[in-house]
Amino acid sequence: PEQKQGYTYEEYKVTADWLRANTEHRPLIAIICGSGLGGLAEILKDQKVFSYSDIPNFLQSTVQGHAGRLVFGTLNGKSCVCMQGRFHMYEGYPIWQITFPIRVFQLLGVQTAIVTNAAGGLNEDYEVGDMMLIKDHLNLPGFAGNSPLVGPNDERFGPRFPCMSDAYDRDLRKLAQTVARELGFSDFLKEGVYSVVGGPSFETIAECQMLKRLGADAVGMSTVHEVIVARHCGMRVFGLSLITNKAVMDYDSKSKANHEEVLQTGRERASQLERMISSFVERLEHN
Ligand code: 6GU
Predict the structure, then answer these.
(1) pTM of the model
(2) 217 Cα–ligand 1 center, Å
């Protein structure tokens, strides 16, 4: 059989229409929760929750730490839609499926995407528990032709060749710095470059050294594809990584990357991260 290469506009629209018919929320903000950071969705008020399995065309979450629920609600008075669990390449989904929700959100009227993730720290100045504002990314899979925008371009979403030099909105990063200062979080707030890899194995020592030399401050297995699709269809993007572990950089180190540490750090910093996003959302302006 002929392999499907992407969704049709109508498929995105079916899902968006279905959601619009099933909730009265009309969010301008979408939040994607990284591994172990799904608690953010729990603090939304006036919730309307959908299991991914109940939403037409939606994929399923298969990873521990990703609940697989779409939560509509208000955060500090602002209407939001929150993905409690995202999709990754290592789950076996083609890259164009991973980013399906982003365009659905765009059709729902979302203007700002907030993406969070758990990441390994490559920068020596980073400590476990630091939050990193994403300033830029390295899309290594993209260099090899693995981009969510590969395939026919639908101009209704955006241009064939979208610009990525301003992917992570400068004003939103400034706002986050301000919010962090007010909350007393400046000590553990960093700003840096996020590098995406396919996973699911963590990086070797040589790979970590390579990524660092290439200019990456943190490494993870998500986010970048969503950001590319969000930018393509005109959303503003704010990205935040929680440094859940230090990537192993030398051969004498006894530490080993593991998913349990990733989830544990998430639990420890979760409430602060929630306060950060919550204040950030409160101060976001849309016109
Ligand atoms: Cl060290 N590597 C990758 N690829 N993803 C991570 C990580 C490391 N720590 C958290 N997520």
Answers:
(1) 0.95
(2) 12
